[in-house]
Amino acid sequence: MKRRTRFQMAIVLMLAGAFASAAMAQAALAQTTGATGATGQGDDEKVVFTWGSAGETSSLNPMSGYLATDFYFWAPQYHLLINFAQKDFSAEPSLATDVEVSDDSMTFTYTIRDDLTWSDGVPVTSEDVAYTLNLYKNNNAYLPSPYLSQIDGDVVATDPTHVTFTTANPTSLYSGKVPYMYDYILPKHIFEEVEKGNCPDGQDPCTPKGFDNIPSVGSGPFYISDAKPGEFVRMVKNPYWEGPDPHIDEIVYRQFRNNDALVEALKAGEIDFAYDLTSPNLFNSLKNEPDIGTVAAQVPLFDYFNMNTGSAYGPETGDFKRHGDGHPALTDPVVRKAIRMAIDSQTLVDKVWLGYATPGTTVIPPVSAAGARWQPTGDEVIAWDIDGANQLLEDAGYEDTDGDGIREMPADSIDPGRPLEFRYFVRSNDQTTIDAAPFIQGWLEDIGIKTDVEAVTSTRLGDIENAGEFDLAHWGWFPDIDPDTALGWFICDARPPDGSAYDNDDSYYCNPEYDELYKQQRAELDLDKRWDIVHQMEQILYEDSPYVILWYSPLLEAWRTDTFTGYKPQPEPNGDALENYGGISDVWLSLRPVSEGSGAAAQTRGIPAGVWIAIVLAVVAIVAFVILRRRRVGEEDI
Amino acid sequence: MRGYLIGKIAQAFLTLLFVLVFNFFLFRVMPGDPAAILLRGSAAFNPETLEAVRQDLGLDQPLPEQFVTYMGDALTFNFGDSFFESGRPVGEVISAAVWPTILLVGTATLASAAIGLLIGIYGGWRRGSKFDVGSLSFTLFVYAMPEFWFGILVLMAFSGGVGPFPALFPTGGYETAASDLTGIDHFADVLNHMVLPFFVLTVAYLGEYALIMRNSLIDVVGDDFIQTARAKGVREKQILWRHAVPNALLPTITLVFLSIGFIFSGAITIEYVFSWPGLGWLTVQAIEHKDYPLLQALFLVFSVAVIVANLIADILYSYLDPRVRAA
After folding, report:
1. ipTM value of the model?
2. Among B41, B86, B276, whose Cβ lies nearest the Cβ of A209?
3. Which of A43, A56, A66, A607 to mutate to test the interface with B (most CBs of B within 10 A)?
4. Which of A160, A293, A323, B48 is most buried, judging by how many CB atoms fall within 10 Å of its CB?
5. Residues 6 or more apart from A143 whose CB is under 8 A from it?
6. Quick one: average pLDDT of A188-217?
7. Nearest Cα to A211, choosing from A235, A229, A194?
8. pLDDT in tens, B40-65
9. How far apart are CA A472 and CA A304, in angstroms?
């Protein structure tokens, strides 16, 4: 009798579970149908713009963040002194309305706006500017401090609307004529407390670099309200913002781990904008989707074929000591020029990027400070020419003396008779470098150069280049808009000094004439004259070819055309449509829903809560039933 | 028995101590300077800023000094701050990923073990039957199948919606980003995000259990005591569940507990496909960025989990198999 009762109980349990499930499911379904916003808590009318990418964040605090994605949360909330114009990257006033430069170009006085208020109600003043720049400088803040390296001593707030500072040498970089100082101005009243160990959120330990800056206090139209590292960042409206009223209430960033999921999320309407798709095939898959817009945006990003021009042979100036074992033939500009002539950038663009990239020429990309780029024309162009490259090598004495298809170094060279066999490194974590290798290897073979291709991680390649133990390598740069940084990668003092310490001149290029021009462009106040010098430098690099610029990479973007409109490419007309360079960008003020209701927060997807409860109850009931039944069977068997 | 237990526990502690020391040196022999990894490609990649980063990360100290600091901190469960998450405490970084990992990988491991063992039991018991042939092909296929590939297919089918498959579930994450859901709605939201990765992981894991259980049961079924039971007229179900399965379970116990130990290691490919914020992907990022403090702590967590799971398996084994106790 007892056994039978248990069995019956199990059945009753299961049936009760099923009934309860059904009832709750119905209730839940009814409830879900009634809700339109993501929260279901009465904020249906909020306009929420959701964008996603596979980009990581490192820190939301400008003192310690170092990744590109971090900038996308600083730009809507912090001002720069001088901003990057949306149209063409030219300099435009932002927090500073005017810059006064002394006759010797060594003292700079910035006039600061007095009409801005931090998102906690405290006015923005020159004290914030002076404090922030000194904080960056004194703490070696990773990304901001290099732009302040020429400032001698402290930045001083002379009155509520003026700051001043001096430099050790004459310079044009702080003149306000170009947007050079990429330093977001922070609230002094917050970071001063952080310096004392009092973080607003009670974080412990609390240091200026360790402070997570969530929630933040910003001077722009938005500030960070909450975030979960690796998952999302949410920005909300600054209640004290007195500029043009944004049409959106919240910006939500969703981090994906891969681009396939990002694309699916866009198609399903989970996000409004998919940023940086990286794969041209995935990008193509979106082209014919309904309600999806796409752009292969031009950004300042390039891939280069790096040649070791002399880690083991270059002049020992400054801290540099010869090191490594790069092939001596690459110290000869003729060999490097022949390699440049043998590489067909257009084919690489077509095959590796399916046509979305731009063939490369000089180290200053098409997207850069207005007027800074030099482009070879007419006879200056070193075009793809295998026969010409062969002739060049032949004329310089690099002949294939043993008939094995590989040329040898001339008799009067550093290493006579040494075959032109080069180590060629690609990066295992960058597919485009791997895809390009067979093409480049084939072309070099056509001019009698043998290459051994090896794929290594970026970390490993960094070490290899640093040690000078390479001949050729494929890597990429994301240069600043102002050409100063990119041109600085090729000065003699930027060579990794001894194999143990890093620096930027990974081709070990060293040319005193170039170095002199570098100094001149830094000091030149007249913008046109500065660009003339910059153009000369670009031409020297193009002809000397420490790098072959393979292509200018695109930024692949896609968005839903049925939710938001008002994207603003920077620069016009084909730049990044969403994330602009600089401080408060126009896009966050122009972005608006396509129609009423189209900007509602994304719906949660999946099975409603009631149905889940039903499923859980049903599973419990089934398990209970099986267990009790087995026990009954077991007892009967004994 | 007490001696056996004490011996096993002492062994576990010694292993842990070894792991603690080994972890410090293991990651430092990896190529690359963490400071350079953080800054390469930015305007800040210059000797001055690199030196500042090294100071911030404590890498400017001599190695013996770093080791003493590390051991002292580790013994007080202070693992320092993450390098690549710019100063976020390692404890906080790991604890944020532990629960999603246990929830996904733990439930998938249990589900796959339960389903896999059942398939193995029924297949092994009816060797050569249609069920056995079918289930063997299926389990071999899912065992050999790349999780990543299957995950992408499932993602495209049930998140994007392809052909007859409905676009039902979210594309990834642990919960709807910035949704403010609470209570039962949050519970359902998490389950909805978990459905697809859970399904993929369960299918991917169950093959191993099924194959081992099947083979183990086939071995046991041929033993004399099974024949004796049959000769005595014991019912087939009784023979299976009371005699064959308990004996055949022994080898699978090690596997199950090892798998439980590895739950903490996460499921890298699935976390990648479904953007699940677990320990697996965190480990990949930590390795990529040479984040010593995070790596040290992560590998300690993994080691503790495996050591404890093994210890439990050893103890359980001694109860289930008297021969182990006797030895």
Report:
1. 0.84
2. B86
3. A66
4. A323
5. A62, A65, A66, A182, B42, B43, B44
6. 91
7. A194
8. 766 677 777 888 888 888 888 888 88
9. 10
Contacts of A56 (CB under 8 A, 6+ apart): A67, A69, A230, A255, B285
What is the rounded distance in angstroms from the CA atom of residue B200 to the CA atom of residue A56?
Answer: 25
Residues in chain A with CB shorter than 8 Å from the CB of B41 are: 476-478
Closest CA to A222 of A40, A44, A87, A47: A47
Mean pLDDT, residues A428-453: 95
Query: If you measure CA to CA, which chain B residue comes closest to A54?
Result: B275
Say what percent of chain A tops pLDDT 70: 91
Locate B111 and state its tokens: 């589900």
Hey, of B29, B37, B86, which one would you mutate to test binding to chain A, going by the most A CBs within 10 A of its CB? B86
The candidate with the shortest Cα–Cα distance to A22, out of A610, A606, A621, is A610
Q: Which whole number is the average pLDDT over B195-205?
A: 95
CA proximity to B74, closest of B143, B130, B134, B17: B17
Q: Do B88 and A212 touch (CB under 8 A)?
A: yes
Counted residue by residue, chain B has a size of 327
The number of CA neighbours under 13 Å toward the Cβ of A185 is 28
In the three-class reduction of DSSP (H, G, I as helix; E, B as strand; rest coil), residue B168 is classed as coil
The letter for the amino acid at A287 is: K
* DSSP-assigned letter for residue A304: E
How far is residue A434's CA from residue A428's CA, in Å, rounded to a whole number? 7
Contact B219, B248 (CB under 8 A): yes
Peptide bond into A554 cis (omega under 30): no
Q: Which residue of B has its CA nearest to A319?
A: B47
CA distances from residue A173 to A75, A485, A520 in whole angstroms, order as listed: 21, 11, 12
DSSP symbol at A258: S
Alpha helices in chain B (DSSP H): 2-28, 34-39, 47-57, 63-75, 90-101, 107-125, 130-144, 147-155, 183-221, 224-231, 236-238, 245-262, 268-273, 279-288, 292-320, 322-326
What is the residue-wise DSSP string for A312-369? Answer: TTS---TT----S---GGGGSHHHHHHHHHH--HHHHHHHHSTT-SEE--SSS-SSSS
**pLDDT at B327 > cutoff 70:** no
Contact, A547 vs A306, CB < 8 A?
yes
